[in-house]
């Protein structure tokens, strides 16, 4: 496997996973209750709770991570940080008990009995997103020097505006289509992306289709192919990794946009229409590593029509480091959400002149 060197965009990851917010200003039970509210509000996403263990049998230095009621306690000092980081990267959002851990962003839930505790954590208030409590209390704390003037304010936890703000602020990762034309087309004997199927070269036809569906497409190709494809340079990705098949397009795209969800679309399915794509997009489950489509119930996933969530990026990198380059095999052994194709005839791959002649009869 060869690598093309160049500046990479770093994965956005704070102290506790992809995005973390510390809850301060209230007691531990209220923090945990806020976590449960958040999982209900963001029910399409994966939310993790990070707290110090309150179990007396566990040392206070051992972090307890919980994911929808399931926990992970890390004891081994040698690999604790690695294990915790890997666990936290599974989530879209980590709710942190700010009474025990700091985080890059904060939400203050005002409780009068915890005001002195909040003052002691003034140095942790580096980016307060919201204050939940009476407006007059917020104004008093601002006058006393707390950095709460530039945040949202909500009167109480039952506020519908708070729910709507959380859903907007922690929306699922943006989804874009990734058109894969980087295959060498050895069996076909010509560039499949340039073949005419709908009065247009297939890549242009798919581009029009994706733009109509507001999926803002990206083109992935090998360096030597790039001049053949008319595409905005800003949205054309040149493979940085060689000899790993279609994973090269996915990983190379994430090297530029690591926080993007990607809908992979191959150029060798000429019968594909918006019906199958719309079915997959409607079924998207951001809690899963990927949402994929099956030609038939119990069948194999189709990686060339799959939504890959950004958390798949490190998983795929780990797979290729272990010599696994088959995206279908990775999907079969991962946490994926599958739907059975309503129009399986649209998913037929055309890879040889004989297959092409068959569909043109």
- Topology as a string of helices (H) and strands (E): EHEEEHEEHEHEHEHEEHEHEEHHEH
Number of helices: 11
Overall CATH architecture of the largest domain: Alpha-Beta Complex
Lateral strand order in the biggest sheet? 4-3-2-5-1-6-7-8
Report how far the terminal alpha carbons are from each other. Answer: 41 Å
Helix amount, in percent?
25-40%
Count of spatially separate domains: 2
Q: Name the overall outline.
A: elongated
CATH homology superfamily name of the largest domain: Spore Coat Polysaccharide Biosynthesis Protein SpsA, Chain A
CATH topology assignment of the largest domain? Spore Coat Polysaccharide Biosynthesis Protein SpsA, Chain A
Low-confidence stretches: 1-6, 56-63, 74-78
**What characterizes the major β-sheet?**
8 strands, mixed
């Amino acid at each position: 496997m060869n690598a093309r060197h160049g500046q990479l965009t770093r994965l956005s990851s704070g102290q506790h996973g992809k995005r973390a917010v510390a809850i301060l200003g209230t007691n531990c039970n209220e923090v945990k209750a806020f976590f449960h509210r958040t999982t209900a509000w963001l029910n399409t996403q994966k939310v993790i709770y990070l707290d110090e263990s309150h179990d007396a049998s566990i040392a206070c230095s051992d972090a307890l991570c919980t994911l929808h009621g399931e926990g992970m306690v890390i004891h081994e000092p040698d690999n604790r940080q690695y294990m915790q980081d890997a666990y936290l990267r599974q989530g879209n959002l980590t709710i942190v008990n700010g009474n025990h851990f700091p985080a890059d962003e904060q939400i203050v839930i005002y409780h009068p009995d915890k005001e002195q505790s909040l003052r002691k954590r003034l140095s942790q208030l580096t980016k307060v997103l919201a204050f939940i409590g009476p407006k007059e209390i917020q104004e008093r704390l601002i006058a006393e020097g707390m950095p709460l003037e530039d945040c949202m304010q909500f009167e109480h936890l039952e506020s519908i505006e708070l729910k709507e703000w959380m859903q907007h602020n922690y929306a699922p990762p943006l989804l874009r289509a990734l058109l894969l034309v980087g295959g060498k087309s050895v069996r076909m004997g010509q560039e499949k992306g340039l073949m005419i199927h709908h009065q247009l070269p297939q890549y242009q036809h798919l581009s029009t289709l994706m733009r109509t569906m507001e999926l803002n497409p990206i083109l992935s190709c090998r360096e030597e192919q790039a001049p053949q494809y008319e595409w905005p340079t800003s949205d054309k990705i040149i493979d940085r990794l060689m000899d790993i098949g279609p994973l090269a397009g996915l990983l190379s795209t994430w090297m530029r946009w690591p926080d993007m969800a990607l809908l992979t679309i191959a150029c060798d399915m000429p019968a594909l229409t918006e019906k199958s794509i719309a079915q997959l997009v409607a079924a998207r489950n951001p809690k899963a590593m990927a949402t994929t489509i099956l030609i038939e119930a119990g069948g194999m996933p189709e990686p060339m029509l799959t939504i890959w969530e950004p958390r798949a990026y490190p998983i795929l990198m780990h797979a290729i480091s272990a010599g696994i380059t088959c995206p279908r095999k990775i999907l079969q052994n991962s946490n994926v959400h599958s739907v059975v194709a309503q129009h399986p005839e649209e998913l037929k791959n055309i890879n040889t002149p004989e297959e092409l002649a068959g569909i043109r009869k």
